[in-house]
Amino acid sequence: MPQKYVKKILDARIYDLAIETPVDAAPLLSKRLNNTVLLKREDLQPVFSFKLRGAYNKLRQLSKAELTKGVIAASAGNHAQGLALAAQKMGVNATIVMPKTTPLIKVDAVRGWGAKVVLFGDNYNAAADHASKLVVEQGLTYIHPFDDPDIIAGQGTVGMEILRQLPGDLDVIFVAVGGGGLCAGIAAYVKYVRPGVKVIAVESDDAACLDAAMKAGRPVKLKEVGIFADGTAVAQVGTETFRILKDLVDEVITVTTDEICAAIKDVYNDTRAICEPSGAMGAAGLKKYVEQSGVEGQTLVAVQSGANIDFDRLRYISERTEIGEKREAILAVILDEKPGSFRNFCKAIGQRTISEFNYRYSDSQQAQIYVGVKVSDDGDRFNLVNELAQKGYLVSDLTDSEIAKSHIRHMVGGRSPQVGEEQVFRFEFPERPSALANFLIKLGGGLNISMFHYRNHGSAFGKVLVGFQASEQGGLEVKRFLDELDYRYEDETHNEAYQIFLGS
Predict the structure, then answer these.
(1) Active site annotation includes 64
(2) pTM of the complete model
(3) Active-site option among 49, 204, 278, 305
(4) Catalytic residue among 8, 40, 51, 265
(5) Which of 47, 122, 323, 419 is the right S-S partner for 81, CB 3.0 to 4.6 Å?
(6) pLDDT reported for residue 437
(7) Each residue of 25-39: pLDDT tens digit?
(8) Which CATH architecture fits 413-501?
(9) Known active-site residue 51
(10) Residue pLDDT, tens place only, 226-247
(11) CA–CA separation, 425 vs 404, rounded Å?
(12) CA angle (491 as vertex; 489, 493 as ends), nearest 5
């Protein structure tokens, strides 16, 4: 199987449009991780991602009749831009169906390359279904974003370049996976030419369709897909890509949103390039691999696969970066409500720096504070918690609490004894114009809302924390209502961060 793809990769004629991207050193990461860390800069392509390679290679394989009909694709953005530019180069009409949640920078870029954009659905799968209907209705030629041999071969030229650029030491290549086209193409080439080089797939933990397929032995469709890393937010790995990956990938690593955010900062510090979340997943996986395996002195390459990111998203990414780097602890601490308590607490944390402090007077005896403290790593965080406990402080570590990081930090001081019993839920919903208004309309007036927090993160998803006045028994009725509402939610009624700061 790899031999067939090696020939297709070598035959790919894409360099009159795509460029051979450099492999850049990451000296700061290298020093910190005690390995030689290199970045394959696919963010430097004309469309700022690797997707141009596969799209252009596919168009070059089509017949004149197929090109005359025009082409169509469904894409969250990067494949769309690659196909739009390739179609412009070849004088072909292109239609791109994009989810309504696609960052505006990608939509504008596709239109800028001359393609017709159709916005449909909240995710890739809905867009793909609509594109399939347009194929039948308009007789267009469908260009799949990943599950096509010519697409896979085009992406595989990344692997060909890496081996040519690094003929010496090379131990592991880390590749982000959505549908799997890039990783399949790289693995097919690398494992045939230099089988001793490991290829490790990296997925976000809320869209790990390859990991699920590996465990099941076949492609499976995820019930829900997180959309923070929108470029890889795919519910099911491709059939052809899985056929390649199941035998050739050495390992699958999943990374969290916080770890991706930290990798975006790491890449920026070394290259001054700002990755989109999916574009930094290779680097995030590389860091996690080193942490878990303890390897030193190896040559590790992360494919920096894309840089199509809305500037407004950087606010959210920046907030999460310190935690993703394991350099900030988020704590809830009880202090005596009397003068000098805060000063004594500052002395107790020693030379560490306070990064955030939230407090509101609510009790004459005790003060409940929400505090961020700079730490060097997880070990330092655990030591800090133990040190505070030994000094008599009641402390809770909220560093891994999603509700604490996304909502509580903006709501400290909102406790209301008058509420009575309360049921609390955390939602994520596709972000688009009027999304919040539509959410509230769907909630209707049947339930009394006792607490509400929403913050626009400048991204493809909205996060809401809602409290309803309802008893534990009434909460069952609330849950039935929410199931009918059909929004993704988590019951946070017993969440520690909520109980500490907001519970009545």
Answers:
(1) no
(2) 0.78
(3) 305
(4) 51
(5) 47
(6) 62
(7) 999 999 999 999 999
(8) 3-Layer(aba) Sandwich (3.40)
(9) yes
(10) 878 888 888 899 999 999 999 9
(11) 13
(12) 145
